[in-house]
Amino acid sequence: MVYSNTVTTLDPVEHRSISTVLRRQLAERPDQLAVRDYEQDLTYRQLDERIRRVGGGFAALGVKAGDTVLLMLDNHVDYITTWLGLTTIGAVEVPVNTAYRGSLLSHIVNDSGAAVIVIEDSYLEQLSDIRGEIDHLHRVIVRGADSTLVEMHWTATEFGDLRLADPVLEAADSKPWDLMAIMYTSGTTGKSKGVLASHGLAYSYCALHWIEPGEVVMCNLPLFHVGGQWAGVYMALINGGTSVIVPRFSASGFWDDVYRFGCTQTLLLGAMASFLFAQPARETDRGHALRNVNMVPVLHNHEKFAQRYGVRIGTAYGMTELSSTISMPYGSAIPGGTGWVRPDFAARLVDEHDFEVPSGTVGELVLRPHDPWAMMSGYHGLPDSTIEAWRGLWFHTGDAMIKDQNGCHHFVDRRSDALRVRGENISSFEVEREIAAHPSVMACAVVAVASAHTEDDVKAVVVPIDGEELGPEELLEFLVPRLPYFMVPRYIEIAQSLPTTPTQKIRKAELRAAGVTGETWDREHAGYRVTKNGLQAPNSEPRRSQRNM
């Protein structure tokens, strides 16, 4: 059976912007809930009032149209009103992964050129640690009580002050070509790249999902990711739904939130779905309001998942640089399948010379839109990278796929060396750079190995300097303060050499194929735990991470 790939009714291209979306919903459903979290909820009318006041607060601090503003915030309604408040004055949001520290954090702060950051007080230490490495930042808006680390280095403002200024009387009339955000990718072959995201791109990203007015969409992915901010919130706003923002995904608390808020739809990464299915069966596994689960990627036991919880499963393929361009509608998803290309995009599978391959043959997915402003405007400050991605006037995704006789696309592998761990994209380059900083390391390679919960686990193969002794425990303790917790390798293998090509390039395919060997050290089996709060060794209390100076 061939499924048609429908797209929700789109606004005309010239109206695909946040200002148009919010004006329409304000006119049609002013008293319907728009966004809510554990502590507050806002109707569309209240949301409009709040974001105009926040926009006025930013304007009072001197933020102007086109200025970039960093957001290093947790999941809550205040994040949404801050992001949307910036759009009321035409400013540009720059989301920051809250686990970033050190060189990863300073790169984004500097590269964005932002003079202002809005940050939770719990992340001030991470910002303070890089104070000598950042250039443009001069104002820090703190959400929370503790601003002492700020006042020594920057001008501090309390988050609540944003709401005290006079509101923007009339929000900026944003256009689809206007820059809305700079969304930083994982940096698969180097430093993270900033994707120039227009209003049109954000709208297009959300246009694929099948939502009816009044749907209640659970957002449990981080709002600094497009999966949380766009698929979890903006998608609901575009279609007249309600977005429920929870602090984070919790396998044990997921269904309690579904019942509490009456959620009808959600997006689950494959690892999240795996954790849910591993929970003990409960009498309340069915009987809830949840009907549809967008699962990426689809579990192998997806049919049992759907039957147990009484839901339909769909899936989609997308990237920050483009949109959710390929999908399988609810009830039709299969493991490995990504689906059919939506009608407002063109797609090809090509070989290494960009010639199209026949159906049934693996090729790299390349895409281009039929409508303008449905994909990124480029990489921030990186014209060469933009040209390379768009060579031949097709955007190269770097993902290998195969298309069957029905036109359905199936994911095969990532062509780059990126990894994906529990929803986080990881650059092997950045992990390798931190490993190489250890004084006893001569060479290293980071690869993905299969995880029991779908996606990847991180394995590092390390060659010490001749005569130096380096144990995996020592390397682990070295890396925890230098990397976000999700980037710290689970597996470490100390080796005498790395396999290389005649031109001395490391054969990562060989390392990936080897996987976990008898020589591989597994930190989890050894009793070590790595969390946001640091490293917990066997039979010890957690040791909070302190950045090496």
Describe this entry's structure for a reader:
It is a single chain. This protein has 549 residues and is of the alpha/beta class. Among the domains are: 40-197, Rossmann fold; 419-536, 2-Layer Sandwich (GMP Synthetase, Chain A, domain 3). Helix content is 25%, strand content 25%. The strands form six sheets. The chain has a 13-stranded mixed β-sheet with strand order 2-1-11-10-12-13-14-15-16-20-19-18-17. It has a five-stranded parallel β-sheet with strand order 4-3-5-6-7, with helices on one face. Strand 10 (216-219), helix 8 (226-238) and strand 11 (242-245) form a beta-alpha-beta unit.
Q: What are the defining features of this structure?
A:
13-stranded mixed β-sheet, disordered C terminus, GMP Synthetase, Chain A, domain 3, alpha/beta, 549 residues, Rossmann fold, five-stranded parallel β-sheet, 15 helices
Here the CATH topology of the domain at 40-197 equals Rossmann fold
Alpha carbon gap, first and last residue? 60 Å
Largest sheet: 13 strands, mixed
Percentage of residues in helical conformation:
10-25%
Category from helices, strands and their pairing: alpha/beta
Q: Average pLDDT across residues?
A: 89
Question: What's the gyration radius in Å?
Answer: 23 Å
